[in-house]
Specification:
heterodimer, A: mainly alpha, 8 helices, B: alpha+beta, four-stranded antiparallel beta sheet, elongated
Chain lengths: 169, 223
Amino acid sequence: MSETPADDRYASWDEVYADNVVRVYRLLFSRVGNRPDAEDLTTDVFMAALGPLRINASKGEVRAYLGATARSVLASYWRSRLGVEVTTIDDDLAADYLAAPPTESDAPARARRLLNRLPERHRRILELRFLESCSIKEAAQAMGISVGNAKVLQHRALRMAAAAQEADS
Amino acid sequence: MSRGPRRSGSLVDALVGGKPLPGGRVPDADELRVLRAAIDLRAAHPAAGLPSEGFVARLRHDLARELDGSPRRTAVSRRAVLAGAAAAAAGAAGVVAERALFPGGSRSADQVALDPAAGQWVAVATDADLDGGGARRIETVGLVGFVAQAPGGVVAVSGVCTHQGCLLRSNDESRQLECPCHQTRFSREGKVVTSELHPAPQPLPRLRVRRRNGQIEVLAPPS
């Protein structure tokens, strides 16, 4: 029977937590897009997973277990919040976020590239709203348009971004 | 044709404002695409990288209470503290020895967590409800209990006396839960404070409790 070498194991739940809490948070943020929900779901993952966890499993197994827990926590969240699964966690995604050593997420760069494919005004409204967290009113002012126009422009820009993404995949 | 910006607007507004997503009507296909694009764009936001300040420490603290306070582990450490061959020899002997030593109260070793196999989280109070410092009586699917603010966070216990099943009452002055049948008094954490009964009743089962969006939720039996 093969043994897991000591340095490939966590010594305590404390270590499991310290090593993985921010990774799990980032994984969940990438799926829900906001911090309060990402934090709540991170809490759910660790509350559910740490009790049953086998501490002497390998780190890979522990991370796989956290990933699986995150997948089902996310599914539950979508079911109760909107009644439909908006985003999911597949094995590859979980592995990307939970891998060791932690990989620098390229999600921000991909978001940037996506924006750069849009026409000027459509890109601008989304930058103002998503990267600079402007209110609709502030964004409208910055662009010299009415609030109503800003809302329509934002909606169109998001649909264009969605179409661009779907064309890629 | 799509509904235009109105509906998906509220979902996108929440995201942009850094707020949790509001629940409600199931989004249609167009709204879903817009929502997914918005979530992906949020990946470029600084909040994507790190949780809010204090989150990591607070969760660690809450987890420690959950994990280290579990009855099985507490029982093991109590037996270790009692030492002696009798306590270590067998479970039954250990339990009897503990009760003989503490006739007026029960050990936290006996406290259990109410843990339904397919439980559901149910909102029972708001943060504001607990502000006054009182214990709030809650009644929901399959259970009655009390929720209160405690130094470590929110605490919730069953409201049924572990002696014969009478329903407890909260005494906000003494900050205790009292049984009208035999005057046993419990702390808000469920420990027996005083009892005329011998042996003293078991501590109250703790309810699993958490905060969500300004609401206090307990884990209740399935409906």
